[in-house]
Amino acid sequence: MAQDFTAYTEVDPNAHITVTASRIDVATLGRNEDAYVYKDYGSAYFNANFTHELELQFCAAAATVAAAFPCALTNIVGGIKGIETASGDHQSILVFYDGALKIGLKESDGGTAYSSYALTSAAFGTIYYARFYRDEAVGTYGTLYLYLYTDAARTVLAGSTSITLHTSKKDFRYLYGVSAYNTSLASNTITGWVQNLDLGNSAIYAGSGGFVMGGSARVRFAGPNSCICPIQWYLSDNAGAPITGAAALTTAKVLRVDDGAIMDCHDDTFKTAGWLSAGYAMSEVDPLNLPGFYEESVDVGSFADGWYLLTASYSGTPLQTGPAHIYVKDGKFTDALLGIKASQASLDTHGPPARRCKRHSPPSTTQHRRQLRPYPLTPRLIRITLRRGRQSSIVLMRLYRAVWRG
Predict the structure, then answer these.
(1) 49: closest CA among 253, 225, 288?
(2) Contact 368, 403 (CB under 8 A)
(3) Could you give the count of Cα atoms lying within 13 Å of 208 in the half-sphere of its Cβ?
(4) Going by DSSP bridges, is the β-strand pair 371-388/205-206 parallel, antiparallel, or unpaired?
(5) pLDDT tens digit string along 255-291?
(6) 5-198 CATH choice from 2.60.120.200, 3.30.420.40, 1.10.10.60, 3.30.70.920
């Protein structure tokens, strides 16, 4: 859901900013003023992976070295330059003009600045559809990414870039819709707008149990409407005790349902043969405080629309696996079918399209009195809906084939 910018705080001493519910316009915003629009989300609110989407357009710039920040995360309230001068931290989108319009990323790590551009010759008057996100599983302290598209569906990529983050993982409190960059250069102005800032907030899909071999596995997928799909897996032995120190024996794989291709983790491409590495080794979260929890993050930003099967497996004793389907739409994880026990569940035949099997649909009303007898030969994938009050979640389970007999 897009942010309501009228709920943000506007600091605009020279009246260069106009704020409406979904859009912020800047007109001749100079580099000689502290002008910005921000919201306080509370301490450490942005504390892990995030995905923000927004639209931006810049129409004109005067002189050279004009700049604006159409999205930024900080822990200090003030102009972006002031935050850097105060040895503060920020992770931001930067728009910069030095004779050519550039759009990219900037990080301030304790006042030390790092930048990288997705476009070095962007076009004035062009709307760019941005995807700005952080993945803390990539690199020691995480990696910041920016993808710029020229269409609302975010399928036509204009440019991309990333910054490997420095010195520590950062949590942030304040989100900026726009900020000037005050270096006392009055004639260096820029004009444009930012709109439809979407933080990708959504519910968490969770499951426990599932089809496992000799143990129990719980798989959790967080953040639908995000291009980062984090997998968290709880691993326990037959007695229910957590298994620790087993990261080297875990593997996470991604299979594209449409054609059966598996992702090669070496170059992040889907293949049907010739993999250099067909699985990710998962990481142990915290063996002391969260024993038994392992995780891996999958970036689906470049995935084609459709269903994908994600599996987590453990090759130690007892052998275990946790399957789940996710649906990707416009480069974002939007739905999930997870491994879960079938108690208090109702059967629903609407599974992932490639896995649908009419032969195992529920009986018609004329068949209700017939007996259901298990025929434990071939595992099948079916869809199950769990309902609690008014809420429901969609889950996936592997069950033995059942045959209706009169």
Answers:
(1) 225
(2) no
(3) 5
(4) unpaired
(5) 898 888 998 887 888 998 888 888 888 888 888 888 8
(6) 2.60.120.200
Query: b/e map of 210-244 (b: 16 or more CB within 10 Å)?
Result: bbbeebbbbbbbbbbbbbbbbbbbbbbbeeeeebb
Answer yes or no: are the C-beta atoms of 311 and 321 closer than 8 Å: yes
| Structural contact between residues 296 and 220, judged by C-beta atoms closer than 8 angstroms | no
Cα distances (angstroms) measured from residue 319 to each of 201, 312, 313, 342, 399: 35, 11, 8, 21, 18
Q: What is the pTM of this model?
A: 0.55
DSSP code for 204: -
Yes or no: say if 203 and 96 are a contact pair by the CB < 8 Å rule.
Answer: no
Residue type at 280?
Y
Q: Which helix (H) or strand (E) holds 25?
A: strand 23-31
CA angle 162/163/167 to nearest 5° reads 155
- Return the pLDDT at 34: 94
Q: Which two tokens stand for residue 379?
A: 């595992």
Region at 315 (left for phi over 0; alpha for psi -120 to 50; beta for the rest) = alpha
Compute, in degrees rounded to 10, the torsion defined by CA atoms 345, 390, 222, 291.
-60
Residues forming a β-bridge with 178: 37
Amino acid in the structure at residue 233 = W
Copy the structure tokens of residue 157. 């990529």
User: In the chain, what are the domain boundaries?
Assistant: 5-198, 205-405
Contact by Cβ (8 Å): 141, 130: no
Residue with tokens 């990261």: 247
Phi, psi of 196 (to 5 degrees): 50, 50
**Residues with Cβ within 8 Å of residue 149, at least 6 apart in sequence:** 128, 129, 130, 131, 155, 156, 157, 158
Pick the closest to residue 226 from 332, 336, 335 (CA basis): 332
> Which three-class secondary structure state does DSSP give residue 179?
strand
Provide the token pair at 225.
């409407």
Q: What share of the chain is helix, strand, coil (3-state, %, to 5)?
A: 5, 55, 40
Task: Retrieve residue 209's tokens.
Answer: 């149990």
For 245-259, the pLDDT digits (tens) are 988 888 888 889 888
Half-sphere exposure for 305 (CA within 13 Å, toward CB): 5
Q: 258: which 2 tokens? A: 């449409």
Task: Give the span between the Cα atoms of 402 and 151, in whole angstroms.
Answer: 47
| Separation of first and last alpha carbons in the chain | 51
Radius of gyration, CA atoms only, the chain: 25
